[in-house]
Amino acid sequence: MIKWSALLLSLLLSSSLLAETPQQRGLAIATAADEADNGWGDSSATMIMTLRNRQGDTTQREIRNRQLEVAGDGDKSLSIFDSPNDVKGTAFLSHTHATKADDQWLYLPALKRVKRISSNNKSGPFMGSEFAYEDITSQELAKYSYRWLKDELYDGRESHVIERIPTYKHSGYTQQIVWIDSTTLQALKVDFYDRKGALLKTLTNHEYQQYNDKFWRAGRMEMVNHITGKSTTLSWTDYKFSNGYTHRDFDKNSLKRIR
Predict the structure, then answer these.
(1) What is the pLDDT of residues 113-135, one digit of tens each?
(2) Is 32 helix (H, G, I), strand (E, B) or coil?
(3) Which of 7, 84, 117, 247 has the greatest count of CB atoms below 10 A from its CB?
């Protein structure tokens, strides 16, 4: 059931879009989508990552994911790899920031070492997948400039199509085109353009479910690399909210306490 607040935001958004420039309209849509997801506190989920090469061969990884919402800044997240054995115990910690470079660390159990990820490397692949480090962190509003392009049906849903341009340094993208469901305000599809302006990757989100009568989460995310022919599927289950996580569960030292 679609929550009334989402419907209200959508109606308010529709009325506010009249007589605006494309830039103002794009920002209004992005702001409404961001506000619709405020207040979730913390969450956990299990993720199966399926890596697929050009020939269709697949490799799977099982990952536990924890997140903490941070008021006034970007969110914090912790991903822990449980299988296969060659990556078991690896953990990725991210502190996303709205207006400055994110802080990210990787714990490598074989070396018993915490490695800081350079802000210059945010466009690099995350654990061999088609997702870059910058794709898997929270998408803060201030990280982009926006422009509304059009409204159209996408996959049978009325959608806003907006352009967003990264405003932070070291992004691997010059442009992203996003299809946003006009009712639920969730991203349905994102086209990523590389530093040469060519279409590099496409992300599609599927099987959305609503939790706590407010928060929408995708059950499946598909990232296709148009250059390499490779793809990655993220399948999410066991979403839980209000786990009681604190900032201590997401500090750098927490990586060495991971079990």
Answers:
(1) 888 987 777 788 988 999 998 89
(2) helix
(3) 117
